[in-house]
Amino acid sequence: MTKKQIFYIGIFASITILSSGFKPFSSEFFPWFHVFEKEEMFYTVPTETELNQTFFNIPFTGKTFIGFRQSLAVRESQAKYHKVNTLGYLGKYQFGSETLRVLGIRDTTSFLRSRKLQEKAFLANLSRNKWELRKEITKYSGKIISGIEITESGILAAAHLGGAGSVRKFLKTNGRRKSKDGYGTSIKEYMKDFAGYDTSCIEASEKAKARHY
């Protein structure tokens, strides 16, 4: 075998070895990470004030309604759906049995077992409180009472804690009429801590119910 033949055989062998190491590219479909054409993606971005903060809670929720709901749940029960406190308040948002009956829920055992029903009850109660306090929200939002800027979300959070009547008395008396729950937490505290969230998505409804379906 001549040197020329050996040279060409070597080139052919090299090409064969190299080509065998490459596979044609094929795409893979991961259904849990795929967004279909008809699906919409919703996201929020931090406000200018929040961008200037050094530390963030993960996941970021900011002053969105999701942030409001999660923060209130953590404050009420550490966000535990099965929680029943020593005063008999139930679930993630700590509802009393009387409030649940108003919302159309009588079976408290089923209520504790159903995350979906608890979330529906929370939304329905917000809708009722927004209706009950619609005049106060319009009249007092943006005003400073007892050192607190009054906002819609603060009013709704305070109403969740102490009821619409207690919030109305606090506002009408310019903060002199205070109200606390069984553990000593005041509606003033809730009005301050939950101020400035976006609760515009909540529709005021006089007869909102938490439906099982």
- Helix-strand topology string: HHHHHHHEEHHH
Structural class label: mainly alpha
Residues in helix, %: 40-55%
Strands ordered across the widest β-sheet: 1-2
Query: What do the pLDDT scores average to?
Result: 81
The main β sheet shows up as: 2 strands, antiparallel
Please work out how many helical segments DSSP would assign: 10
* Anisotropy-based shape: elongated
In angstroms, what separates the terminal alpha carbons? 85 Å
Q: What Rg do the Cα atoms give?
A: 29 Å
**From the structure provided, what is the oligomeric state, counting identical versus distinct chains?**
single chain
Show unreliable segments. Answer: 25-43, 53-58
For the secondary structure, the number of strands is: 2
**Share of residues in strands:** under 5%
Tell me the layout of helices and strands:
Layout: H1 3-20, H2 48-51, H3 65-77, H4 97-102, H5 108-113, H6 115-132, H7 134-140, E1 144-145, E2 148-149, H8 152-162, H9 164-172, H10 187-193
Antiparallel strand pairs: 1-2
Helix pairs in contact: 6-8, 8-9, 8-10
